[in-house]
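Example 3.2
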Amino acid sequence: MSLEFKVSELAREFGVHRNTIRNWINSGRLRARPAPGRRYLVDPRDYEQLCHRYGRTPPPASKPAVQPVAEAPRSSLPPLLLGEQTTTLHDDPAWAERCLTCGSCSAACPLAGVDGLDPRRIVRMALLGLEEELLASDWPWKCTLCGRCEEACPMDMEIMRLMHSIRGHRERHQVPGPLHRGVTTCLSRGNNMGIPGEDFVALLQQLGEELAREGCRGFVTPIDRHGARLLITVNSKEVFSEPDNLKYWWRILHAAGESWTISSTCWEGVNWGLFTGDQEAMRTLVGRLVDTMQGLNCQALLLPECGHAYFATRYGLERWYPEVQAEYRLYSVFDLLLEYLHQGRLRLDPERHTRLATCHDPCHYGRISAKYFGRAYFAEAREIIASCCPRFVDLVPGGLDSYCCGAGGTSWTTPFAAERVYAGRLKARQIRESGAGLVVTACHNCRDQIMKSLAREFDLDIRVKYLWQLVAEALV
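Structure, written as tokens:
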């Protein structure tokens, strides 16, 4: 006799997040077997040991959190042997056997059917050892890695992890678009664009002088300032094409009286090692940020690039530098802005933006952050917007079920433009149906996709702003 439970049920019993229960299962701390309907089977003795380990008394038999279920009788038929199967795409080849091919992932995927793409098909191909076919396919690169497939999956399949693995196993010279070139350039020259250090410093100084003339009296760009509390990074795309956008954050930091700095050498806020599946490059880039924080004696780090940079760095710190994560604070854009607002360090005009506003939630700050870190940034964005906008409407569906804009997973950078626009059709429909005239988001790629692509392709009469741009423009 085994006990049956749902992750959410056990999470409520132990007073933890459901991702904590998943982590216990994945790490072997709780030995449980997947069962249909997003349920798990566990031996009663293992359940009692878990209760003992965390100082809990198993509930009375009349109201157990986990339900007894009879084992199905074993078949007397001999197994059907398909021959030896080997796979390098996953450390546990049996993981794909949990897949029920129910189609939930395909129904949730914004690209299902395009060029034959189907998450179920990719999972079965990985299970059957068809690795060469998967590596030759462009499916993993057209995928936006939005995570809607995993959110819909009743068996908690790690489809995104498979996509990352397929990307990482492709020959580097066959990585589409400028992604691999950006990684190698960042490793050799410090940023994805290869911008010379002296040019970067000169630009920062020039922008600082402009900001001082525009109302931030006494402002001087703090470059390599030792002992500053906060180290911030920069997206090299903005340095290259939209440098004035850097001043949005600088206005906020100046108004809040923040002690902050930018490194003249390690300032890139983009980590494409994540999206190319290059774990070693990803680890190196995170390590450089660690060295920079320690070298400049900073206490905290802000990655204002987008959700993927926050995810890549936090994931890297937890995996490779846990002792550093315990010593330094990693801010999301939401954490820092709310800290300033709650401490009264920013004065904002709540009537500054008069258009009906809505919020697009980047996938890495939402579903993916919830899955890996146990926290999604939804309410935080809306609290910040409410401090700047008198009128707001939410997109439906929202939260963990929200639609990807179509530019995730570096789709904005790859040559698959038609697929990117198609994947964003649902987001465009959401925005039109909301009636909003102002779309606010906390991601560079999301902003570019909505403003420069979806608005044009679907004739949307909207303005698009970064979350921090919204705040900077509402400063009193």
